[in-house]
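Homework help thread (please don't just give me the answer)

Our assignment gives two proteins as sequence + structure token strings and asks us to describe the second one. The first is just a warm-up. Here they are:
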Amino acid sequence: MKESLSLPEARRIALAAQGFAQPAPTVAGTRQLNLALTRMATLQIDSVNVFARSHYMPLFSRLGPYDTAALDKLLFSRRAPYVEYWAHVASFIPAVDWGLFRFRMDDLRAKYGSEPDSWYQTHREIVDWVRAELADRGPLRPAQIEHDAGTTARGPWWDWDVVKRALEYLWLFGEVAIAGRRGFERRYGLAEDVVPAEVLAAPVPRDYAIAELIARAAKAYGVATASDLADYWRLKDRGAVVSAIRNLEDAGVLRPVTVQGWQAAGRPAKAWMHSSASVPRRVDAAAILTPFDPVVWFRDRAQRLFDFDYRIEIYTPAPRRRYGYYSLPVLIDDDIVGRVDLKADRGASTLLVQSAWWEPDHPTDAAARLADVLRDAARWQGLNAVSVSRWGDAADDLAGAMPEARRHEAGAAAAIPLERDEPAPEDRAGASVEA
């Protein structure tokens, strides 16, 4: 067993763990979707919809064009096998894993719901009313919850934002679960109406839960540092993370390795490889990635693995954007070789490549292979054409590889109003834990 890995080996291990070392299926059905979700262990949600909603994209990246209705059925149907929780921020997890996050629910209640002057405590009348509405009427959207003041005359309705805030706290505390969505609007229900009763009856002790989550993160990453493993589930308890890693190492689940170029304080960084990880001789992949794909969602790891300096620029004023509004990393084989800013123009049935950029030392066939991915992406989104702008050092190469594509003038995409239920940008930075 290797104790030292080259950087290309580490990249191939990481990509194989995420499912990129195997060919995409001819047809991706429910079985393939479940297998991909199992590999990732969680699926992050984000509300930006300029090309495709982020939770649809990791499956496209790994499986190619698939029927998003099949994923919707897995995620949003009544008694779906997956449920939303604050796992790696707002994410889908298997419903059977709800109990693994009881420690987080307890921590969030202690943080936001215990102090007498907290919003939750000072608005208990609203919170109790919302809870009672769900108990009486079943899962509801926030707009469906009305407030009757209890007088002979009908009282004022509580503001939608107040109801929504009460629902969000109850969700974070584990009293409420997401019972599906209408469009992208959540339906909230009491946890007992959404999560299987046997799961609710078996909360997982904190130490065991953290150890299990670290083991799953290690399997999903293949090879990782302690900070990588902590960030997978946004674990902030350094002592618990370090203890879990040591116990998993003693059990033979993890083994320490060094990775070429991974440094901490001028010394080789401590890293661990999962016992099930494989080191493929090559990875033959071509994909575009969402910014919230596990391959790149922890920006420090993306820098270490791929020498890829990545920030999305949706919060950057248009004149100051370097790569575009919502640039997506381009994966070719075992490296990230560029980025493309995509937008689906539904009215014109056209996939707009708003900008395209190469990383240094991209392979000579990158444009042709990216062109095939974009053709698939347009077909997957039901778009009939592709148009490539003139912005970016990869734009002309890409257009040359797509003779059927139209061209349009470069220009930063207009800012799109966001309805976000995810954290602010500063909350995306990730955990920092070293063992």
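The one we have to describe:
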Amino acid sequence: SQFTSFAWTDRLKRAGTRISMDGKGRCIDNVFIERLWRSLKYECVYLHAWETGSQAKAAIGQWIAFYNHRRPHTAHGGQPPAVVYFNTIKTDQQAQAVA
């Protein structure tokens, strides 16, 4: 609830940050990030016994790069998030150039 409180969301709005919620301020707003953390834990963290924080940081960074650029997502028609994101930016830029 601290991330949907007026004090927090107002601060983000004043900073010009676009808040990603469904607009209802419900707990389901966090479902996507919770899925990310679940995937990270089960596909990376729980499978390794790193000895140092540096090893963990490097491995988690590699997994996040894999997740964003190579791992297929059913919600994106089997495409990785980065492909969908950059295609959206490209499409938006093309539409702005035409307008």
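TA reply:
I won't write it for you, but here's a hint about the kind of observation we're looking for: The radius of gyration is 17 Å.
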